Amino acid sequence: MIAVLRLQNVANIGDVSAKKLISYCGSPAAVFSDKRDHLLKIEGIGSFTLRGLYDEKHRKAAEEELAYIQKNNIEYTYFEDANHPKLLKHCTDSPILLFKRGNIDLTGRKIISVVGTRKITSYGTAFCEKFIEDIALLNPIIVSGFAYGVDITIQKLAVKHGLQTIGCLAHGLNQMYPKTHAKYIKEVEKNGGFFTEFWSTSQPEREHFLKRNRIIAGMSEATIVVESAEKGGSLVTADIANSYNRDVFAVPGRTGDTYSTGCNNLIKQQKAHMMTSAADLVYLLNWDVKEKKTPSVQKQLFVELDETEQSIYDYLFENGKQQLDSIALECRLPIFKVSSTLLNMEMKGVVRPLPGKLFEAL
Fold this sequence. Notes:
Blueprint: H1 2-9, H2 15-25, H3 28-33, H4 36-39, H5 47-50, H6 56-71, E1 75-78, E2 97-102, E3 111-115, H7 122-135, E4 141-144, H8 150-160, E5 165-168, H9 185-190, E6 192-196, H10 206-218, E7 222-225, H11 233-243, E8 247-250, H12 261-268, E9 273-274, H13 278-284, H14 295-302, H15 307-319, E10 322-323, H16 324-331, H17 335-348, E11 351-354, E12 358-361
Parallel strand pairs: 3-4, 3-7, 4-5, 5-6, 7-8, 8-9
Antiparallel strand pairs: 1-2, 2-6, 10-12, 11-12
Helix pairs in contact: 1-6, 7-8, 10-11, 16-17
Domain Smf/DprA SLOG: 77-284
Family: Belongs to the DprA/Smf family.
Pfam families: DNA_processg_A, WHD_DprA
């Protein structure tokens, strides 16, 4: 642990270089026992990177931070640990060490990030409320930055609906920024918690917020931008998510609305899928709703169906792909009625036609 902290504390060694050194030497401790000339043979590692590597001040700082960690029972995960966020491991520039607090359980869970402006409007709030209400049916983990606006709105809603939520912080775990959000810490930690790569000596500086955005994007299957002005941190998060080949979604808004400009631009520039409901996310990520939920949940998540539509949907849900004649027979409906109803259901996005005059529920 001391060796990992020492590497974190060397100013010229970022996470990419740290991983190269660890891979070459076999362990963090071996980096400090190897000779400088040997380390310079590593591709991408030069004299500037190694400047100060062996300085004892880094060991002293690491020992002090470790003492703080142990005294305050702070948990941590090394990037090669089994309990480290799985998707984050695929990001070359992800932190080599994450500190955490709370009751975080990532095992077998779907993880999505929701970000946006700190000046959320009533439009953004309404979308967040509806989105969480619908997506709660699938019990995903909601990740955000615990900042003003969209972040705290979506995380409070996640708590309200019993979802695990994780706040990625731009400072050490010994403080909370903004201070007014400290009152939500216990609620979040009951079912979720906080991640940060920053030490207890780190302050919430501007560059730290930009740096933590890669954790938000990297640990998630998809990133959703709810509202954003033409420029903003959430757009940086979207760019990072795209660089990781993750799906990005943006909520469209009116062309004249300041805090829809960023989202509209993401969609226009094909940097994000347009998102109008939770169903868009479920469909484009190819999440299997059927594996955990009932037909009534399908109905609630996607769209309201009338009695005839629901009858047909339930039949297809239970029996898989079926021909028009079979649907009419089993649902006790005339073929012309089934045909027109299936067309309406196709337009609603709850069934799809297949070759051979087959239909299946989505």
